[in-house]
Structure formats: structure tokens, C-alpha cells
Amino acid sequence: MVSSTPDNQLGIRLILTSASAIVAEASTFPIDITKTRLQLQDLHCGVTKGAIRTAIGITQEEGFRGLYKGLPPALLRHVFYTSTRIATYEQLRTMVTQESKHNQSMAHHALLGGISGMVGQVLICIHALLYVYSWSKCPFVTSVVSKHMTCVQ
What does the mean pLDDT of the chain come to? Predict the structure, then answer.
């Protein structure tokens, strides 16, 4: 049987939250890839086809797997983000609990959750901006955009 030490509990929480993040990311990834393609269409063409037409176009031109291109790095990003939030929250909660002799209110826990979410979000937001920017400036993407993303006039 697994012992219930604080470090072990944090490890189990990280594993479970990472697993749930993987399921959530894999489930919503087609929406994210469609959104990214819409952003690139607008950037390179000045006009977009719309979300549904873009998603249909991806499946027609690249197959169903086209909706999942780039999934492994996205899963890694999400696991990192989720782990960062949980570890930050657990550390903050431990520090606050040790300094205070009474139980913390729900507002205290919400504040700690908000702070840990901000820490993770700052890291991921910087990554997301660099990700979209790098794709928009990449010569390979420019050629793919002109090949696969016909501008609607």
C-alpha cells in the first residue's frame, strides 16, 4: 500500500491533474487548431472563412488527423501549466497554513488558487504569444498558408 506522506500526496495530485489536463486538451484541441488557423488566415489573407468552414477545410485537405497536428507539444504544455499551478497552490497553502493557527476561509483558498493560476498563466501566455508569432513568421508556414488556406475574397 502507498504511504500517505505530504510529498506522496502532492505527487499523486500532480499525476491526476496532469492526466485530467491531457484528456481536456485532447478533447478541445480541434477547436484550438481551428482557432489558430483562423488567426493565421486573418493575418495572411485579411479575411477568414469562419470556424466551421475552416475545420471542414482542414479535414478535407489534411484528413481527420489534421485537427490533431501539434497535439504532443500542446499536451506537454498543458501538463507543465497544470503542474505549475498545482505545485504553486500547494506551496502557498502550506505557507499560509503554517503561519496561521486557524482554518483558512474559502476566500483565502480562492485567493491562493487565483495567485497560482496567475503564475501558471503568465508562463503559458508568454509561450502562446511566441507560438503563434513564430508560426506566422515561419517561411514553411507561409508556404503552407498559401497552399492550404485559400483566402476568401
Answer: 78
Give the ranges where the chain is alpha helix by DSSP (H): 6-45, 51-62, 71-99, 106-137, 139-148
Residue 94 makes CB contacts below 8 A (sequence gap 6+) with: 6
Place of cell 510529498: 7
Instruction: Identify whether the C-beta of residue 39 lies closer than 8 Å to the C-beta of residue 147.
Output: no
- Its pTM stands at 0.61
- Cβ atoms of 39 and 132 within 8 Å: the answer is yes
| DSSP 8-class letter at 70 | T
Largest CA distance in the chain: 66
The C-alpha cell 502507498 sits at: 2
